[in-house]
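Exercise 7.
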Amino acid sequence: MDVLAWLLDSDPALRWRVLRDLLDAPEAEVAAERARVTADGWGARLLAARDPDGQWAGGACFPAGFTGDFSAGQPWTSTLPALELLRDFGASPDAPVIQEALDLVARNSHWEYDGAPFFAGEVEPCINGRVVALGAYFGRPVDDVVQRLLGEQLADGGWNCEAENGSVRSSFHTTICVLEGLLEYERAGGAAGGRKLVGEARRRGEEYLLERRLVYRLSTGEVADPAWQQFSFPTYWHYDVLRGLEYFRVVGGDVDPRLAPAVELVRSKRGTEGAWALDAVHPGAVHFAVDDGVGAPSRWNTLRALRVLRWVERG
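Solution. The predicted structure, written as tokens, is:
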């Protein structure tokens, strides 16, 4: 199978990233393809799914009327996961339809927990890290949320949504959500609490993951959770090894030797035709699928794995 041709035979949301991240295509070609994200395919389809007030499914974190029954998984149709998908798709923040969407969300979407406006954040750092990533990417002020996250970092370097219930140990899930948010914030030029403080907090969080080689318990050296060795997309709030490697790829620079076991895991999961499968999906209602199902070759996982390996090999 010609993997690159297979990746290009896809949606604009994925195709422009292949052009940029794997083929080093000219900037004009990449920009032209990226501009299609909000007009064609998945991006346009997701934007069309909005409610008249600009929200998705009538809620910020959960759909309107959600009763808290997670027996069928967490529903992924509300505003937070929808905006995360638009960011994953690379929808241009400057596109008028995107700014219109963000204006409506800022005006009309409020958190179910306490009614705070969407970009003011919630109480859980796993949610607030994602809010920071979205605000920084789409150009919305999230300085106060960043300040809160800086004050919630635990002694071991990470974050945990259960800290308010007394936990003093960090969570891989929460930590990756916060790290991605702080990195996006720094790249956007944010400086709440001082650029130096944000960078230092981020590096302490990175060290939390690196000490554990992205998947192992520090206490025993055993795999902390076998599910983290299964690659999914979209990830939502869930951690896995490929998501961890993708984070460090975006950070760039030298490849830390402690990433080696995670990199070898990625290499080992490549199929005979050169693609990576979709190992898992996080159950719950979605607007539409963006891959062919668990066990099938996954364009998203293949793109993500190839660009991680490209970074490692170049490094």
